[in-house]
Amino acid sequence: MKKRFLSAFMVLVMCFTLLPAKKIVTMANVWWSGEGTEQNPYQIKTAEDLKVLADHVNAGYACENEYFKLMNDINLRGDFLDPIGGIKYYGFTQKGGPFNGIFDGNWYTISNFRIFEGSNNDAGLFGWIGADGIVKNLTIANSEIVGGFNVGSIAGLNYGKVSLCYNENTYVTGCNSGGIVGCNDCRGVVEYCSNRGIIYGTETSGGIVGFNNFFSLVIYCYNYTYSILGDENCKIGDIIGKDLGYYESWD
Question: Of 94, 203, 219, 243, which sits 20 to 30 A from 19 (CA to CA)?
């Protein structure tokens, strides 16, 4: 009898031990108000809410089909942020993967923050937006974002959709640098966005997108600044630094 009890107990312990990591991370989502649904999205109200979201995604939780909504302007007053997500590159900071949720900026602004990734890749408020990720209705203002490859105010690397997002007076610098997205790749879409920030690239530099790769789309975006700069051999463009995808203008 005692042996049977011990065996059953060990099986129960193993079951809890082997629960998928994603389920364990999911439990921490109670940090935010809301339920993560379209009708009742998780509410982002503070800088700490943003940092917790970055911690989740960088730990490997992609937030698939989960909805987030900015509830007010957030002024970080010069504080540092970690990008939300990013690819694991050998020799660079290990990040968990893409953000595959839906983030609605709700027409509010996130301002006065700094992201300094040094030579690490995928620097932006979102390091990497995955194929199912959407970021919309959001303004980034008066901030500084520095990284290696793929640097943008909204996203360093975009595989999903960035819509109706704006850069107001944010300085962006890196290898592929864009006012909104550093590298738009793998059928990524950037639409109805504008830039008023200063962009400096070492390989590509664009007012909206630094590098628009194959099968990706930039549509109906506008750059209001002439401060799109780059190194001697850098490819510089008013909207896109280097375009191998598709681009449609307002004309």
Answer: 94
Q: How far apart are CA 78 and CA 144, in angstroms?
A: 9
Q: In Å, how far are 52, 122, 198 from 94, measured between CA atoms?
A: 17, 11, 28
* Domain-located, residue 11: no
Instruction: Name the pTM for this structure.
Output: 0.86
User: Is 54 part of any domain?
Assistant: yes
Burial class (CB in 10 A: 0-12, 13-18, 19+), 238: middle
192 CB-side CA count, 13 A: 7
Give CA–CA dist 6/97, Å, rounded.
40
Query: Is 195 among the domain residues?
Result: yes
The per-residue pLDDT for range 101-158, each reduced to its tens digit, is 999 999 999 999 999 987 678 999 999 999 999 999 999 999 999 999 999 999 999 9
Query: Which domain covers residue 58, as residue numbers?
Result: 30-248
CATH number at residue 79: 2.160.20.110
Question: Is residue 22 included in any domain, yes or no?
Answer: no
Beta bridge partners of 240: 209
